[in-house]
Each structure stands twice: as structure tokens, then as C-alpha cells.
Amino acid sequence: MENVKIIEIKKSVFENNDRAADELRGELKTKGVFLLNLMSSPGSGKTTTLIQTINRLKDKIRIAVMEADIDSDVDAIKIKEATGVESIQLHTGGMCHLDAEMTEQGLNNVSMEQADLVILENVGNLVCPAEFDTGAVKNAMILSVPEGHDKPLKYPLMFSICDVVVINKIDVLPYFDFDMEKCKEYIHMRNPKATVIPICAKTGEGVEVFAEWLLNEVSEWKR
Amino acid sequence: MENVKIIEIKKSVFENNDRAADELRGELKTKGVFLLNLMSSPGSGKTTTLIQTINRLKDKIRIAVMEADIDSDVDAIKIKEATGVESIQLHTGGMCHLDAEMTEQGLNNVSMEQADLVILENVGNLVCPAEFDTGAVKNAMILSVPEGHDKPLKYPLMFSICDVVVINKIDVLPYFDFDMEKCKEYIHMRNPKATVIPICAKTGEGVEVFAEWLLNEVSEWKR
Question: What ipTM was predicted for this assembly?
Fold first, then answer.
């Protein structure tokens, strides 16, 4: 099994997270690095979606991944083994989210000069990560079919801050009472500008649409 | 559509949550009321499981439900319509968990003298609710098959504090790579004493086992 770098993230001391996030974004712009903050509930398929997406993009742009988890390093290892890109594990030590300063602690351990795109896989949680700007250029979230189409009603902030909502596990649509049109309606109620992309990370269906969205965003950022 | 009482929960001012939780448990013991704290990820099937469980128990014991959500009152209404038991909605106003004092704010709006069992459906989140003792007599959680059997590795605290882990959505086992034996092994790694109960809340399969567990716990508490 591969080894990955594990970073123990410390609590932030900086009080103004919004300012720290803006500063981090400015720094990323200068360095020409696009940071994507990927969020979801536990078990929505963030890691599998990333593997599929990275394998479609890694010949076009240089990618690095930061996997945040309370404990364990299984995700960072999985990403490294399945894609070959640089992948580090961030341990939050029980903390339920990452803010900008914590994200920067991670970025300090990534080879930034060799990356066009850094993806932060945030802690699996629809509540707290939505409250803290990580300094990312764009926010993405994954909602999986088994979770139900009513989630935008229950986790309003998360859906309102995401630029793109990936709806994963569409292969099991026949086995769940999931109304795709209602889901899109609820998402747009929270954020009319959100891009909604249905995919199945397991089979790869639809992943090229998300990969293309990401590629466009990275190109625009680096212009 | 039915109307339910909606309580806007305020932030706690009490600093020592563990003491507040112990005091609340003492009060519940005196009153002969059993409080169950039910936790899970978003979309694991807490509300459906509760409806099925309550309908199996409501002729044997008196039940009331507190539904915590950041926003919306859909769950409390669903419970009331499907079971007829007293059901109130707690709005956390963005807060990601409930502590003992917040739980007590809810309990003050429940007819305690007419209840043997009060069920608190906590905010859908595997991280923060695990860190705060609500004053409940027992903690239960639901892990659903689509989330994957590796969740005890990633959310150690949640699994370590739960007396019972209900594994929901076993009807879709054929469509997911979910290893039940591995899952049980990981759960018992976190908490060797945890009771594991596989169910399908949609069809009702296995729910009687959870209902019986709960009935026994309530009887023991009221002895």
C-alpha cells in the first residue's frame, strides 16, 4: 500500500476568517492555482467522484488533492493509488470543518508550483463546512440519490454557497423515491445560479460534464 | 396538512455541558421519562425509521418526538401525520448539534407527564452531535447501506458513543458494495458493546428488533 503525507491540522488563531479567505484567494490567483472545495454528507461518493474526475483531467492540467478527515488516511491513499496525482491527508482532530487558515496549513504541504488545480475534499458534513470560507475559488457539493431530493430544504446554507451541485449515484434511481426535477427546483430555490450535474461515479456516467465544468473554471482563473 | 409546534432553540449559556446533561438525566429519571437521542448523516432514514418504530410501540408506551432541524418543519409534520403522537419541531438556527440545555428547551415544550419515551431526532450530522451529551438515556444512530461500511473508520467518536447502531436500507444491499460483516467489525472496533440492528425502514423489515430493544430500555429505566 502507498504511503501518503499526513498533516495534523491545528485550530486557527486568526479571528477574521473571511479576510483570511480573501487573502488566500488572492495568493492563489497570483500563483495561478485554482482551489476547489468539495463538500458532501458522509458516504455521498466524494472520493470516487474525484478519482473519476482526476483521471479525465490529469493529462490536461496538473492536479493535487488534500483529503480532510477526522481520522484515517484511507481516502488519500485511494486517490494516490487510483490516479497517481499528489495526494495528502489532513487530519482535523475531531474538528467538523476547515476554515481558510486550516486550508492554508494543508496548502503549505502541497507542491503549489506544480499544480494548476488543488482539490480540497472537506469533512463529510452538510452543516459546518458551509459556514466557513476556505479560500477556495469555487465550492462544489455532492448530493447522492439515496439521501433524498429534499436535502436543499433541510441544509439551506450548504446549497446556497455551492456553485455546482453534483447529483451522484443516479444508477440506483429506480430503487429510491428520488424526484430529480423536484431536487433541481429545490436547489435553485436556494441558489438560482447553481449548476446541477447528475452523475454515476461508479460507472463514470456524466463525470465528463463535471470534468469539463472544472476545466473551464480552471482555465478562466488562470487567464 | 397538520400544524406542529415550532421551537426556535437558543444558544446555550451554561458552560458545563456534561453537568447539565447529568442533571437533565436525573430529572428524566425522577419523572420516569426515557430520552433517546437519534443521530445519523443527512438522508439515512431517521424519520422513516421513527415512524415505523413508533407505530409498533404506541399502543404499549406513550411517545413524544422532538425533530431538530436547521430549518423546515417537514419532519415533525410527517411524524405527526403518520403516527398521531405528539411531535414538535426544534429549529437550531444554523447550529450543527444540540447540547443538554438546548434539548431541555425542547423538552419544556413536550407534555412530559404524558410520555414514557421522548425521542430526539438530532441534526443530520456525524461529527458535531457526537461531541455533545444531550442528557439522553441512550444514544442511537442510523447508518444506511449507501453510505458504505467504512464509516466507523471515518467518524470514530459517533460510533463509540452509540449504544445501538441501526443499519438501514438493507433492501438495496444488492446494488451497493456494502460488507455487513466488515461493518459490524468496524463498529465493534469503536464500541465493543454496541448493538447492531439491520433494518429496512421502507418495508419495515427488522424494525421490530429495534422496537423491542427500545421497549426493553424504557422498561428498565422506569423500573
Answer: 0.86
**Per-residue confidence (pLDDT) for residue B15, from 0 to 100:** 76
Please state the CATH superfamily assignment of the domain spanning residues A5-10+17-222 in this structure. P-loop containing nucleotide triphosphate hydrolases (3.40.50.300)
Separation of alpha carbons A53 and A51, rounded Å? 5
With beta carbons less than 8 A apart as the criterion, state whether A51 and A78 touch: yes
**pTM of the predicted structure, to 2 decimals:** 0.91
What φ, ψ does residue B85 adopt, rounded to 5°?
-80, 165
- In eight-state DSSP terms, residue B137 is S
Q: Which residues of B68-95 are buried (b: 16+ CB within 10 A; e: fewer)?
A: bbbebbbbbbbbbebbebbbbbbbbeeb
pLDDT tens column, B19-38? 999 999 999 999 999 999 99
In the structure, what pLDDT confidence band is assigned to residue B2 with cuts at 50, 70 and 90?
low
Q: Which residue matches cell numbers 438515556?
A: B137
Nearest CA in chain B to A45: B147
To test the contact with chain A by mutation, choose from B96, B169, B186, B200 the residue with the greatest count of A C-beta atoms within 10 A, namely: B96
Q: Which of residues 74-93 of B touch A (CB under 8 A)?
A: 74
Residue A196: name the closest of A155, A146, A147, A159 by CA. Answer: A159
Domain B5-222 fold:
Rossmann fold (3.40.50)
